[in-house]
């Protein structure tokens, strides 16, 4: 059994982030979420933050630290997409996605690491995507930002591994969220053909892997990329 920890999930107001926060609450942890709008699940502390702004991130952490204590488990989940083919992708389309998904993870990890170093304990979980390794037409910006998280986690592991801090990457595939629910039935069927498990995952299936990798039983795993994709990205 993992001792209760102070957990922060960025982008915890919907989708996978919401499910992750919910699962940490269910397991008895003190949970905060950052959101630009909306609220996290019942039992969480919702803090306004924009991960593209270091001052905003710092203020959010200060609020969480005073309410719940130093962040011991960080789940960097906040992310955006601006999908379009390479030839049509603007500099802005590229920069915004990379600054939010990769830069945002850097900002929250850097701020969280202060308390983790002091405590000589920390769990950093970066939410990537099967697309980060598998690639996806129309997602040059998103895929680049998500594969960048792997280099980040592995570098953090080499820097901070001796201080009781782990850094791992979760790479979800297709998940049942509002976004996938809006896809036409024939598109969903087409996607499922390429997935060996022949179905999408529930957000809770991702959440349970995140809580496990952040728990005491996984203390000797660091720098790993754990796919939760029904076999879609095998070998990548």
UniProtKB/TrEMBL annotation:
Domain (Ketoreductase) spans: 5-178
Q: Sorted alphabetically, which SMART domains does this protein's record hold? A: PKS_KR
One Pfam family, please name it. adh_short_C2
Keywords, A to Z?
A: Oxidoreductase
Q: GO MF annotations for this entry?
A: oxidoreductase activity
- Record-annotated membrane-spanning stretches: none
Instruction: Tell me which PANTHER family the record gives.
Output: 3-OXOACYL-(ACYL-CARRIER-PROTEIN) REDUCTASE (PTHR42879), 3-OXOACYL-[ACYL-CARRIER-PROTEIN] REDUCTASE FABG (PTHR42879:SF2)
For this chain, the family text in UniProt reads: Belongs to the short-chain dehydrogenases/reductases (SDR) family.
Protein name, as recorded: 3-oxoacyl-[acyl-carrier-protein] reductase
């Amino acid at each position: 059994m993992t001792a209760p920890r102070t957990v922060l999930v960025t982008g915890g107001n919907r989708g996978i982030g919401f499910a992750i926060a919910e699962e940490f609450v269910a397991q008895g942890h003190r949970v905060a979420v950052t959101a630009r709008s909306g609220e996290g699940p019942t039992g969480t502390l919702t803090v306004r933050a924009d991960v593209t702004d270091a001052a905003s991130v710092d203020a959010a952490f200060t609020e969480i630290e005073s309410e719940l204590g130093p962040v011991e488990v960080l789940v960097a989940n906040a992310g955006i997409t601006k999908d379009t083919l390479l030839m049509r992708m603007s500099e802005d389309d590229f920069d915004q996605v990379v600054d939010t998904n990769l830069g945002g993870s850097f900002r929250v990890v850097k701020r969280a690491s202060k308390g983790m170093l002091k405590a000589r304990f920390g769990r950093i979980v970066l939410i990537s995507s099967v697309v980060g390794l598998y690639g996806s037409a129309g997602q040059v910006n998103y895929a680049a930002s998500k594969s960048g998280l792997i280099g980040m986690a592995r570098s953090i592991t080499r820097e901070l591994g001796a201080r009781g801090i782990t850094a791992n990457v979760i790479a979800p595939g297709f998940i049942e969220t509002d976004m996938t629910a809006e896809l036409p039935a024939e598109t969903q069927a087409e996607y499922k053909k390429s997935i060996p498990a022949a179905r999408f995952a529930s957000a809770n299936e991702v959440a349970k892997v995140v809580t496990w990798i952040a728990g005491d039983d996984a203390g000797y795993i660091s720098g790993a990329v754990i796919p939760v994709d029904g076999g879609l990205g095998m070998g990548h």
